[in-house]
């Protein structure tokens, strides 16, 4: 998926799978059932979903980790092993956490510099409500193919598209679903994406065979996604041209709007395409936006603070809101800066605690092994792979483990059934890579929700490409469509 975690990819790929022969399947499932029960109780029975305050989900993940540790102690797993796995998980998300801090700073500086308002201003004139949703899918897909990163796509054009669509009166859940659908199509198909490289490495095939074979399920899924979003575009009520005209006038009066402002996002995207490290590219994006704010938006900065430097600092670190004479735009032109990313970062850290302990006690390996044991047919083998990837996205909270562990566990089973390794690599991507964003406490779900400002529950039903992908791969398996056999010696 996101090439933002290249440093951790090799470590995760080389990491051994911990097997605990003393652990039973029932014991392995106890922490999972406990975690899911707590989360479900919070969602369905607790008012405002704040059982323990604003950080309820974080506390629940930690309690799930405690439940896992209790099971581990019962099965003679040392505390040292648990802490070691937690530390390995934390190290694997260190770079993404830094990126989240930079994305918060980027959102703040791109707002006060007029970059996001300019994107909204010009986007309102080009993207009409009738084509907005399918166009968002296509735009996000192109950027993601070019960059190999759904994370970069969301942090740049994704934020702008949410702003434009909101101004048009389109529900933010629909917009986020369209952006994420396109971003993950590009992420899957781009040779620059690290999961696109990781999946064939785990399965034992080469990169371009994997991409070619994956296109059989991915392209039809994208076509269906575009058709659904085209139909949805015709069913939503949006603001009329008069309202758009008023919005354009308000933006023009509040900010200095010029095509020159697009230099900053252009530089960031170009750097990502040229394989510049995301941390460097995003940091330069923050610095350039701050410079542009000083040059073009002195009135905006004066409205935030008496000092321009203080206004920039506030945009980077804390929340800032640009007041306009339009309530919807005032709500749109707000950013939480680095502070706004703290909730998401804590969620990722707590999720890594739960996933690390589950791995340390051998529960992840046990659950996957049991799934493999019930795969008595080719369809059953594919289905077990899909369920394993989905389950690990929920339990381990990291899409890399959702690719690596099933890849290692199922590789020999595919060989024994006479199936070419690209069958496995395609299934890993169709179910491991794309579904990670559908889990609120998964690193990908937490990131996309935090960056786009839309909760997972709001965009879940509209992330059509993501939940349709595993269904498509199982459909191909059920009807033996493009199921390549190993060449007989």
Outline the fold blueprint.
Layout: H1 6-14, H2 25-45, H3 56-74, H4 79-92, H5 94-112, H6 115-126, H7 132-147, H8 150-168, H9 172-189, H10 194-203, H11 207-233, H12 241-254, H13 263-273, H14 278-296, H15 298-304, H16 308-317, E1 320-321, H17 327-332, E2 334-335, H18 342-360, H19 363-373, H20 378-395, H21 399-416, H22 421-433, H23 443-452, H24 456-459, H25 464-478
Antiparallel strand pairs: 1-2
Helix pairs in contact: 2-3, 2-19, 3-18, 4-18, 5-14, 5-16, 6-8, 6-12, 7-8, 7-9, 7-11, 8-9, 8-23, 9-11, 10-21, 10-22, 11-22, 11-25, 13-14, 15-16, 18-23, 19-20, 19-21, 20-21, 20-22, 20-25, 21-22, 22-25
Q: Please list the strands of the largest sheet in the order they lie side by side.
A: 1-2
**Main β-sheet: number of strands, strand sense, barrel status?**
2 strands, antiparallel
Q: Over the alpha carbons, how many angstroms does the gyration radius reach?
A: 23 Å
N-to-C CA distance: 35 Å
Low-confidence stretches: 1-12
Content of β-strand: under 5%
* DSSP summary: helix tally: 25
Q: Please provide the count of β strands.
A: 2
> pLDDT average, as an integer?
83
Shape: globular
Give helix % range.
over 70%
Return the structural class.
Answer: mainly alpha
SSE succession: HHHHHHHHHHHHHHHHEHEHHHHHHHH
């Amino acid at each position: 998926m996101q090439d933002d975690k290249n440093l951790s990819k090799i470590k995760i790929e080389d990491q051994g799978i911990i097997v605990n022969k003393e652990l039973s399947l029932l014991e392995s499932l106890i922490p999972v059932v406990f975690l899911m029960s707590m989360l479900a109780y919070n969602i369905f029975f607790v008012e405002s979903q704040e059982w323990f305050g604003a950080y309820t989900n974080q506390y629940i993940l930690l309690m799930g980790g405690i439940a896992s540790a209790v099971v581990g102690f019962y099965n003679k797993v040392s505390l040292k092993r648990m802490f070691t796995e937690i530390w390995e998980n934390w190290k694997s998300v260190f770079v993404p956490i830094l990126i989240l801090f930079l994305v918060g700073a980027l959102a703040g500086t791109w707002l006060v510099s007029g970059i996001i308002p300019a994107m909204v201003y010009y986007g309102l004139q080009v993207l009409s409500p009738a084509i907005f949703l399918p166009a968002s899918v296509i735009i996000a897909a192109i950027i993601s193919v070019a960059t190999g990163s759904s994370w970069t796509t969301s942090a740049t054009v994704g934020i702008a598209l949410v702003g434009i669509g909101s101004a048009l009166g389109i529900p933010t859940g629909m917009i986020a679903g369209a952006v994420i659908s396109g971003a993950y199509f590009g992420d899957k198909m781009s040779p620059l994406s690290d999961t696109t490289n990781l999946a064939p490495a785990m399965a034992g095939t080469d990169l371009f065979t994997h991409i070619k074979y994956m296109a059989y399920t991915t392209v039809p899924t994208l076509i269906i996604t575009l058709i659904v979003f085209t139909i949805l575009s015709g069913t939503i009520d949006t603001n009329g041209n008069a309202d758009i005209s008023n919005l354009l006038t308000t933006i023009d009066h509040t900010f200095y709007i010029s095509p020159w402002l697009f230099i900053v996002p252009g530089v960031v995207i170009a750097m990502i395409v040229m394989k510049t490290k995301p941390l460097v590219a995003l940091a330069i994006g923050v610095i350039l936006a701050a410079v542009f704010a000083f040059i073009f938006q002195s009135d905006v900065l004066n409205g935030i603070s008496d000092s321009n430097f203080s206004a920039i600092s506030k945009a980077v670190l804390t929340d800032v809101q640009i007041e306009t004479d339009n309530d919807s735009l005032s709500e749109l032109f707000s950013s939480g800066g680095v502070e706004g990313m703290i909730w998401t970062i804590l969620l990722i850290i707590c999720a890594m605690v739960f996933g690390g302990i589950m791995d340390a006690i051998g529960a992840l390996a046990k659950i996957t092994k049991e799934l493999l044991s019930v795969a008595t047919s080719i369809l059953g083998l594919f289905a077990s792979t899909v369920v394993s990837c989905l389950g690990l996205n929920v339990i381990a909270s990291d899409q890399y483990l959702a690719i690596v562990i099933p890849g290692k566990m199922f590789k020999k089973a595919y060989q024994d059934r006479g199936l070419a390794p690209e069958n496995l690599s395609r299934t890993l991507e169709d179910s491991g890579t794309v579904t990670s964003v559908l889990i609120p406490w998964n690193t990908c779900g937490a990131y996309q929700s935090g960056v786009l400002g839309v909760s997972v529950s709001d965009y879940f039903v509209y992330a059509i490409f993501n939940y349709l992908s595993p269904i498509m791969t199982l459909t191909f398996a059920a009807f033996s469509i493009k199921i390549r056999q190993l060449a007989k010696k």
